[in-house]
Amino acid sequence: LFGALLKExxxxxxxxxxxxxxxxxxxxxxxxxxxxxxxSAELIRNTFMGVCDVTKRMESFLATGNITSRSGLDLQQTxxxxxxxxxxxxxxxxxxxxxVHRGSFFQEMKTTSVRKLLPExxxxxxxxHTPDGTPCGxxxxxxxxxxxxxxIASPEGVIPGLEEELASLGVQLxxxxxxxxxxxxxxxNAYVTLDGRVLGKVAxxxxxxxxxELRRLKIDKDCPGxxxxxxxxxxxTPASFEGxxxxxxxxxxxxxxxxxxxxxxxxxGPMEQVFLKIAATREDLEASTKTSSVPENxxxxxxxxxxxxxxxxxVIAGLTRSLT
Length: 324
Fold this sequence. Notes:
Order of helices and strands: HHHHEEEHEEEHEEEEHEHE
CATH class of the largest domain: Alpha Beta
CATH topology of the largest domain: Hypothetical Protein Ta0175, Chain: A, domain 2
Number of helices: 8
CATH architecture of the largest domain: Alpha-Beta Complex
Low-confidence stretches: none
Family: Belongs to the RNA polymerase beta chain family.
Radius of gyration: 27 Å
Number of domains: 3
Strand content: 5-15%
GO molecular function: DNA binding; DNA-directed RNA polymerase activity; ribonucleoside binding
Enzyme class: transferase
Keywords: DNA-directed RNA polymerase, Nucleotidyltransferase, Transcription, Transferase
EC number: 2.7.7.6
Shape: globular
Distance between the termini: 44 Å
């Protein structure tokens, strides 16, 4: 958003600069008794400082959160993009930097679906730390262990060594950009994608095995080709898009859980955890091995466990003492 607004401000400033220079050139015609205008660096700089207000407009946006744009930038709202971080106390000041707001546009909607806490947000958005009143469910806060991925993406869009690891696991990679991948997900094969780009295909019978091996390499710190924040989604549900979906780009959220097979911590993403079996407490692990006469209590084989029973709470909500 900041870059899109800056681009529009610079574009409008350059158009005004062009108009100002053209006006000075017309005024300096020989017929009016003036010398012709020579475009020098000093003239352009002085004219730019006189007609352009890039700094003032960007400072106004950061201070007020209001956007003044001719095109609208294809946004649903023009106000409420920034929040002033007030220092009422240290906790209040900290919560500003862990807050996530859906947007002031949804405050006027009568439906409550945008305010619901969905299953994939478990462990990423705190179910407790949200204000009362109009912003309830719209102004949320990140859970304490949740962290954003800020790694700079490579220009080619591929992490070095990752494709080689996939090929060694039996994935048939796309060797040429001209190769058609329309039928890669048909029959006994399933798609393998990386950040939305089709990398190749793998046999459906090998889908889970490839995902588990990638997960082992992700936890292994000695494998540079597989980053620690790689999101591995192995979907084998017929009603969904079957395939192996991999995500490595920035601007994602990940959180740590403990892998029961190795005992090490592993970073998982929102879409990834939907297809994992993560236990909340040790009691869940013990209960999963016991048989019960209740039909709903189906024994489940967990693959991960939460680092703490309160890991789904935010930093501030986690400071509240439990009554149990």
